[in-house]
Specification:
The protein has eight helices and twelve strands. It is an alpha/beta fold and 313 residues long. Strand 10 and strand 11 (201-209) form a beta hairpin. The two termini are 27 Å apart. It binds zinc ion (2 copies). One zinc ion binds next to loops.
């Protein structure tokens, strides 16, 4: 989820954050709580928090997969501090080396912890478009999330992938394989899923939101197409980018599919009736509101995105 323009703070509060950041000594955080969703597959559940709340660097589901030879980390959290806390959780469960850090997409809540793993010298793996997307986001991250960086904030703390996936890629952790798949534009333009083949665990990144209202930064139509394909994938456990782990593929994807379809249908009606983007943002999707938490953090912006996508179709 993108902690986007909505993540504002009053100037005074921002100054306080900056002062606090400047005097912070980056102490080692305690290990994150992780659940073993399947043997050797550990997930830390992100918190369901508003975008501007304290702790917003810990809202994404992140974790790691342990093979017989080495470990792959999947997403690293929204700050170097969360990355270090995830690394501490890894070290608590295994002494094996960390050979891969996989980023599911560019959003800050998933990638800003990468730096915590730099000294492990893993390969940093992401979608073919991710390195460029991170480069584009550097100044945005520094401007909007300065308080989440280690002090003093600087672009060197933002680590981009060095191993890029154009279509699919298999990674061998020793005794188990991960199948990575790069998707066409959907939640973002750089979404990557990870299937832990032997355990039947599908790690969706933000292609799946549960409970928390989805945030659209790519293509609504592309996202629907990805959902339809992913919902057909036979898996036992689904780890969404946000929200609880699911075990039934068909029901897991349905609410998000309904939400996106509602936005597409609603926006098409508005455009056909000659309504403005502001009109559409004020009410499209309202029928879905009761199904989602943190609605105001994303719906109107999603509607504007869909409007711009469908305007010329
Ligand atoms: Zn996210
Ligand atoms: Zn996201």
């Amino acid at each position: 989820m993108r902690l986007a323009r909505a993540h504002g703070c009053a100037i005074g509060a921002c100054l306080l954050l900056l002062v606090a950041g400047a005097t912070r000594a980056n102490p080692e955080p305690p290990a994150l709580d992780v659940d073993e969703a399947a043997p050797g597959v550990f997930v830390h559940m992100g918190k369901l928090l508003p975008l501007d709340a304290p702790g917003h660097d810990d809202i994404a589901n992140i974790g790691f997969v342990v093979g017989s030879r080495c470990i792959a980390v999947i997403d690293t959290g929204g700050s170097p501090r969360i990355g270090r806390a995830l690394r501490a959780a890894v070290k608590k469960h295994s002494t094996l080396p960390i050979c891969y850090v996989i980023d599911t997409h560019v959003h800050v809540d998933h990638v800003l912890g990468n730096i915590a793993f730099k000294d492990d010298k893993p390969e940093f793996v992401g979608h073919a478009a991710l390195a460029e997307a991170i480069n584009r986001s550097r100044s945005y991250f520094l401007e909007h999330y300065a308080g989440d960086f280690d002090a003093p904030p600087n672009a060197n703390q933002i680590v981009a992938p060095d191993k890029l996936v154009a279509t699919t890629l298999q990674l061998d952790l020793g005794g188990r394989r991960l199948e990575l798949r790069a998707w066409p534009k959907a939640h973002t333009d750089c979404d990557l899923t990870v299937l832990v083949q032997d355990a039947g665990v599908l790690w969706t990144g933000d292609l799946l939101f549960r409970e928390r209202v989805p945030a659209l930064d790519g293509s609504a139509k592309g996202w629907l197409a990805a959902i339809d394909e992913l919902a057909r994938t036979k898996v036992k456990i689904i780890v969404p980018g946000h929200g609880p782990i699911a075990r039934d593929s068909a029901s897991a994807w349905l609410p998000e599919r309904n939400y996106l379809q509602t936005l597409i249908d609603g926006v098409r009606e508005e455009i056909a009736a000659g309504k403005s983007i502001e009109d559409a943002m004020s009410h499209v999707g309202a029928a879905e509101k009761a199904n989602w938490k943190l609605w105001d953090s994303a719906n109107a912006r999603n509607v504007s995105r869909v409007y711009q996508e469908l305007e010329w179709e």
